[in-house]
Design a protein that fits this description.
The protein is α+β, with helices and mostly antiparallel strands and 421 residues long. The chain has two domains: 86 residues; 247 residues, Major capsid protein gp5 fold. Helices cover 35% and strands 20% of the residues. It is built from eleven helices and 16 strands. Strands 8-16-13-9-12-11-10 form a seven-stranded mixed sheet. Strands 3, 6, 7, 14 and 15 form a five-stranded mixed sheet that branches. Strand 11 and strand 12 form a beta hairpin. Helix 5 crosses helix 8. The chain is flat. This is HK97 family phage major capsid protein. It comes from Pseudochrobactrum asaccharolyticum.
Length: 421
């Protein structure tokens, strides 16, 4: 990974620091990542002191409750900003001008810019023309969008991703149902069971955007048009993908991971069964015991790469939990590049996870790379359409992607609720 200068990190911090931080009594220099980390630690100390004060108090103090809520919101804002910086640090090694081992082709890029502005097609543009005709998707632009999706969509950063060139993808599964037995030297050998091979289909859905730019703006613009349009498209594609990877129903979109949990729509879809659930221990929230039960219910062989996937609202509730020795389970980042943790396990914020309420699946814990598979149909396609809506030029952009559970065994889900008496 390339070295990331403090100046570049400071610029990134200024862009990612939530506005809600401004005005709080605990301030941080948003041009200094170290100051932000120190600020979140100070805020956490103040939050915990206020929580302890509330626990010792025998009356419901409205002012104290408001102070706890205000500090907790600031802690969440600081930690979210630090998490954003951590993601940018992880992505800093990406060279936007290199695709794998292939350097960008300046002649090709210039030709694509000409096509974006005026529809001009030169001989060099044939490098990006698909066999079905009419689409021009230069590899340089395609991979730029994919890389940015990995930065924005947390699931993409942790799941297994494959690229295909066909219309769909099927996975073979071995049920390992082979039999064996002990026999004597001359005893008859009865036939034992034979393992069976099953298949699971990962259908592709299509996501599209159809932005329009006036012809005059295209003629007069002095900006990098393909980069600008890629920025606009990637933000919307990432938002839609993030929702689908978590809760998509599989109709023209991926099968979301939550649909494979016990009792959900796809609980019987996978040959290995559903993702097992563990109860939180409270009717509408979390308990320390429930979260520890969740972590230790996962088989040891999957713990090495396991992480906690949950929403910001859930983390707010987790910050107040203690173990049997009075230690807080949630810990903030203590250095740039280190995530917040719960009981020593890394936390990944998924904005689309349900908030903690009765019967909700609010937390996932496990190895996302071994659990969830994203299938990309290679190629972001762009169709330039100057005819349909004059004087605007439409850039019809599409991407085909599928997703589903590859193996439910390396993942556990926390369901809000108490065991039945």
């Amino acid at each position: 990974m390339k070295n990331v200068s403090m100046m570049s990190l400071a610029s990134a911090t200024a862009l990612t620091t939530p506005r809600a931080i401004i005005g709080h009594t605990i301030k941080a220099d948003n041009s200094d990542p170290k100051a932000m980390i120190a600020a979140v630690q100070t805020a956490v100390t103040e939050l915990r002191a206020s929580i302890d004060e509330k626990m010792k108090s025998k009356v419901d103090d409205t002012v104290l409750n408001e102070r706890i809520a205000r500090i907790d919101a600031s802690v969440g804002n600081f930690q979210s900003a630090i998490d954003g910086l951590n993601a940018q640090v992880a992505a800093a090694g990406i060279n936007q001008n290199v695709i794998g081992d292939l350097p960008a082709d300046p002649e090709y890029v210039n030709a694509f810019k000409a096509h974006m502005r005026k529809g001009d097609v030169q001989a060099s543009m044939s490098k990006g023309t698909d066999t079905d005709g009419g689409y021009l998707a230069p590899v340089e632009w395609d991979r730029t969008i994919t890389n940015k999706l990995k930065e924005v969509s947390p699931i993409r950063s942790h799941a297994r991703i494959i690229s295909i060139t066909s219309a769909g993808f099927k996975k073979l599964f071995n049920d390992r149902a082979i039999g064996s037995g002990w026999v004597g030297e001359t005893a008859a050998r009865a036939e034992t069971s034979t393992p069976k091979i099953g298949t699971l289909d990962f259908p592709l859905g299509e996501i599209y955007a159809n932005p329009a730019i006036s012809q005059q703006l295209l003629d007069d613009a002095a900006i990098n048009l393909e980069a600008w349009l890629a920025d606009e498209v990637q933000a919307e594609f990432a938002r839609q993908e993030g929702i689908a990877f978590v809760s998509g129903n599989g109709t023209n979109k991926p099968h979301g991971i939550l649909t494979y949990v016990e009792g959900a729509a796809n609980a019987a879809r996978h040959p290995f069964g559903a993702i097992k659930t563990v109860l939180s221990g409270a009717d509408a929230g979390f308990t320390a015991d429930g979260l520890i039960d969740l972590i230790y219910d996962l088989p040891a062989e999957f713990r090495a790469n396991a992480k906690i996937f949950t929403s910001r609202q859930s983390q707010s509730a987790m910050r107040k939990l203690k173990d049997g020795q009075g230690n807080y389970l949630w810990q903030p980042s203590y250095a740039l590049g280190q995530p917040a943790t719960l009981a020593g396990e890394q936390i990944v914020e998924l904005a689309d996870m349900p908030k903690p309420e009765a019967d909700a699946i609010s937390v996932l814990y496990g190895d996302m790379d071994a659990t969830y598979l994203i299938v990309d149909r290679i190629g972001i396609r762009v169709l330039r359409d100057p005819f349909t809506n004059k004087p605007f030029v439409h850039f019809y952009t599409t991407k085909r992607v599928g997703g589903g559970v590859h193996n439910p065994e390396p993942m556990r889900a926390l369901k809000i609720g108490k065991p039945t008496p």
